[in-house]
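User: Some background: our group keeps a shared notebook of sequences we're curious about, and every so often someone picks one and asks for a predicted structure to add to the entry. Today it's my turn. The entry only has the sequence so far, pasted here. Could you supply the structure so I can complete it?
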Amino acid sequence: MMNIIVDSCCDLSPELQKNVQAAVAPLTITIDDKHYVDDGSVQMIPYLNAMKASPNPARSACPSPALYMKEMLSAAGDCFVLTLSSRLSGSYNSAMLGREMALEQQPDKRIHVFDSESACAGETYLAMLLRDLTAAGKSFEEVIDGMNEKIRVLHTVFVLDSLDNLVKNGRMKKAAAAVANILSIRPVLSDDGTGGIKLIGKGRGMRGALSQMVETCRRQTEGLAARSQRLTLSYCNCLERAKEVREMIWQKCPAIGEIVLTPTSALSSMYAEDGGIVIAY
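Assistant: Of course. Here's the predicted structure to add to the notebook entry:
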């Protein structure tokens, strides 16, 4: 039997979590002096409002090695662990330490930790692939090979409707953000292929930025078999916008078949912010 453990940057609705059958190791987010454990209990609207109201950036803390060890040891059989990018969080390193601790107690247990080199919808995509590979009866080594192959080519693209966190985290100057807001410019960002983030475009208004996102998806999936690819879409407090983007993708990207919509977790919402959209394919 193979078990799946993910951290809470993996956007899994209750239905998706049941489908993937994953245990979730929660991160903790701190806004000023208040701590939020990302275990599904965070009330999203008050949480987003607290982020907006604070002059300080939200901070996150990864699950402890002891927590990962506990999840690994409580799983009957072998374990696969999936974390958000090691360039964005210490979750991967914590899971690796937890693995060492677990193997000291159960040396015959097989445990593999994947660095998703992504976050949000990207981690969700990989969790679903992990479920597919294990459900298909692939061996432990075949699952590792299949996951690593997809991690190398996975695309994660996102559009932010708010620039607040970029300013608070020092990634954008306040004056530049003010100009961008006046001109209604919204950034289109992507993974850089190694777990980091890069700017790939700017759109006039949210609609323009989302159109660039969809065009990026079309271009990167061009030539693949019609309706052969899965796409995951995470949305932060903007279900109707997510549905509109889903329709745009179906119309513009012939290679995309299944599109899975899921709300962002508290940790993912710290990155995406209110109104953000993240896609992975």
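Suggested note for the entry: The CA atoms of residues 5 and 245 lie 29 Å apart. The chain has eleven helices and 13 strands.
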